[in-house]
């Protein structure tokens, strides 16, 4: 009796599945429904989705819809919401990728890493500031994804790589101060994004435009399980208008080595009377290119003591005290490279000891 009931249940289930399949196939075109049916039962793989079922697209997919180039006088304003935005992006790191390939795939980018939409007048002007030293491998992947990512958002943008000269201890925050000043000398940008070279955005709904408050864009990194590690975290990728940046006196100049400057910046936002704006966890996702700590960027042992003093030091250490020397300015096709001497912890030109 039990065996007979089991057979009937099996037949009823099979009939139910067949009815569902027939319903699916009859709603729209046969080809689309078949694809939909198989996606239901197939595990997401690296090409079509991820563990949480997000369907991902090629970041270059929508660029074919850019349309013809129009005369400047005939251009309408770009729509407030770009029709080219596609959502989640499939991110991998092909071993044979070259800068020449990145250049070939971005024919509308002009020297200096500058771009503006060919058929509409952009509503936003965004500069990307990338602190850098000895990360050419990571930079190649970031440029591969970032250029089409920004083009899909119909932005007028420029990419600035601020390269620290010499082998002295790395100072990420000071390089970003340099980037702010040098980028604003070239154009009246209305938004500046401060972008780590090893973070790749995974969703182009995370728009690279500024908000009413300083924006922390990299809210959900894969290394943190796509969660915000703590409330005041302001690391990875952040965005500020020029007014917001100056209101908090920019970033600190005295954090040499790894760690501490992100938290100092977060405190400065609060001390400047501002809040932190963030996208949703679903949208503000980033994949990190795995790597070890760089030589010359060892953990800063003073960072906790320095953070404890931020409330007393932020007005006297920042954009108003930054010192540096421009060594070279090179307008590459995909970015503007600014090589800069920012000195050492002892200063830009440490005084030589005199012997008596």
From TrEMBL:
Galactosyltransferase N-terminal domain mapped to chain residues: 78-211
Membrane topology: Single-pass type II membrane protein
Gene3D superfamilies found in the cross-reference section: Spore Coat Polysaccharide Biosynthesis Protein SpsA, Chain A
A biological process from GO: carbohydrate metabolic process
GO cellular component entries: Golgi cisterna membrane; Golgi membrane
Domain Galactosyltransferase C-terminal: 216-292
Pathway: Protein modification; protein glycosylation
Purpose of the protein: Responsible for the synthesis of complex-type N-linked oligosaccharides in many glycoproteins as well as the carbohydrate moieties of glycolipids.
UniProt record similarity statement: Belongs to the glycosyltransferase 7 family.
Name assigned to this protein: Beta-1,4-galactosyltransferase
Organism this protein belongs to: Triplophysa tibetana
